[in-house]
Structures are given as C-alpha cells and as structure tokens.
C-alpha cells in the first residue's frame, strides 16, 4: 500500500527509509516523551479529521510509551488550532494535526496570526483523501466527458456544492473549471448533510466531496460517483475512473499533516516521524483507513516540507487568479 502514496516517489523513498530507523536512535539524544503528548486537531470531534487522528495516534502512543491526548479546536478553517500550536513551547508535547486548509489559509486568510512556514516544524504527512464528483438526479451525466459537454452547452447552469467558500473541495471545482474550460457554479453550504439533502431533491446538480463523505451515498437515491481526483485507483470505488483519464494532469486531494511549533529539536522530530511512519505502515491500520476512503501516506520531514511549500504555492496562485475571498 505504501508504494501507492500520492506524494511522489521521492517523498516515498525518503519516508520509507526513515520509517525503518530504530526508535532508539533518536531516543539516545532525547528522553522524549516523558509525559503525555497533546495532539491538537483542527476540526471537531467525530468528523473525518478527528477520526483519522484517533485511529493513528492511539497506535503511535503504544510505540512511544506515553498517552497521546486528542484536543479538538475547531473553527476558522483550522486556523484556531494552528495558532494555538504555533504559540506553544517547542518541547515535543504539542503537535497539530491539520488538513489541506493549512496550505490554503495563507492566501484565503491574509491576516493569520502565524506563518505556516516560519512558525512550524513539519513532522510528516499522515493520509491523503481523494475528492469525488458525486452527481444527483438533476444531472444526467454518467462520465466526466458527458459532464463537460453539458457544462459547455449551458455555461453556469450546472451547480456544484461544497462545504464552504475556500474549502479544498471548492478549490478542486475551480481547478476543474479551469482545466476543462467550463463554468460550473459553486454553491457553498455550511454542512454536508444540507448539501446532500438538496442533491437528493434535485436542487443542485452535484457535490464535489471527499471519498469519505461520498462512499456511503454512492448508489443511493440516484446518487453516483462518476470520477475521483486521485491518480491511482480508489479501493472502495472499483471501476470508477479518475478525472485525469479525461483531463490529463488534473489532481486534487485532501490531505492531513502533522506539525510542531518551530524550533522543535531535530531528534524529537525524527523520533515522532519514525513512530508515525511505522504506524502508517501497519497492515491493519492501512486497511481501516482504506475502508473509509483514506490512504496512509508516510513521508520524511524534509519531503513533507517540500510538499507543503508546493501546495501553498499551487492553491495560493489559484485563489488569487480566481479572486476567491471570504467574509
């Protein structure tokens, strides 16, 4: 499963190599952890990000011998949690588990009380989650090519929901519009259930949502996933093609990463990254994550840092060009 990591071959090799290091190598330089470790999750309890955090860190704590305590700090697209960790001591007892919004917020929320590159030490990638095109009864398309043809025939008439302006799914739609040369109208919703109800009722054409959200709906009430946004097959969506098969080069993934306050000693970064990568390689966890449409994606700190910079640049450019603002 690790060989399919969507972060790229360089990141895979770096992450997999580090995952094989003995934990004792870093422990020889640090006596960390000597007490419980706090994992601040940027979204509320019971949501997809929280679920992944609990699945992963209940296993990491067994490797490191101390409790890992999940603390949910939802709000402002994840920036409340990020600010709390940025202001914490870089002693290895406060980490941030955040999703793609960490790379989106710098362009979307220019008055952030932190800098994502200056104020954090990237520790490692955790998972990736493909987005999906989930169509309802109001849209007759069954393939990406048919969807594009409908959109070109009637610009702006097709509507696509997401869970908010500036969300990674909204940006995935903007990227789709630009790549395909179409105009599908974005309709932001405060929560997924409201959007799903309107999709069933035919009030909107489609939802661009994570695989985690779309999987339980696929095949119900004339709802169907016609494509996903990964570049490898999604196990829980057999036979469903990628958008890139019709639009070469298109790719848009939700992803989670782990961060510490800037200045965390390298030995602690190495110990945490090794424990995290070894956990993400466990067959049972890989299977549990795949069951909810999520792929374990271990990386080294260096590879993850490079990936993060690329995501900040990619989405920052799109937000600026599309004139996306909130508030």
UniProtKB/TrEMBL annotation:
It comes from Teichococcus deserti. Keywords: Signal. Residues 1-28 form the signal peptide. This is Twin-arginine translocation pathway signal. SUPFAM superfamilies: Periplasmic binding protein-like II (SSF53850). Belongs to the UPF0065 (bug) family. InterPro entries: BUG, Bug_dom1. The keyword Transcription does not apply.
């Amino acid at each position: 499963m690790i060989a399919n990591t969507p972060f790229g071959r360089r990141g895979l090799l770096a992450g997999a190599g580090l995952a094989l290091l003995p934990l004792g190598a870093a422990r020889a330089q640090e006596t960390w952890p000597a007490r419980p470790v706090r994992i601040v999750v940027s979204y509320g309890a019971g949501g997809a990000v929280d679920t992944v955090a609990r699945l992963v860190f209940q296993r990491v704590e067994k490797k490191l011998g101390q409790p890992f305590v999940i603390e949910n700090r939802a709000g402002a697209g994840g920036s409340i949690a990020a600010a709390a960790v940025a202001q914490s001591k870089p002693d290895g007892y406060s980490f941030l588990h955040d999703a793609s919004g960490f790379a989106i917020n710098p362009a979307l929320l220019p008055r952030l009380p932190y800098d994502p590159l200056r104020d954090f030490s990237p520790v490692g990638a955790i998972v990736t989650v493909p987005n999906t095109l989930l169509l309802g009864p109001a849209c007759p398309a069954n393939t990406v090519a048919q969807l594009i043809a409908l959109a070109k025939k009637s610009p702006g008439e097709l509507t696509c929901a997401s869970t908010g302006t500036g969300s990674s799914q909204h940006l995935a739609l903007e990227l789709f519009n630009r790549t395909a040369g179409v105009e599908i109208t974005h309709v932001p919703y405060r929560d997924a259930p409201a959007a799903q109800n309107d999709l069933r009722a035919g009030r909107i054409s489609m939802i661009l949502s994570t695989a985690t959200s779309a999987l339980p709906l696929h095949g119900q009430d004339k709802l169907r996933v016609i494509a996903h946004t990964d570049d490898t097959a999604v196990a829980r969506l057999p036979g469903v093609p990628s958008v890139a098969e019709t639009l070469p080069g298109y790719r848009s993934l939700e992803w989670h990463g782990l961060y510490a306050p800037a200045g965390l000693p390298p030995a602690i970064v190495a110990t945490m990254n090794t424990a995290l990568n070894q956990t993400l390689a466990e067959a049972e966890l890989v299977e549990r994550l795949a069951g909810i449409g999520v792929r374990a994606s271990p990386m080294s700190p260096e590879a993850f840092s490079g990936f993060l910079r690329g995501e900040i640049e990619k989405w920052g450019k799109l937000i600026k060009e599309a004139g996306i603002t909130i508030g």
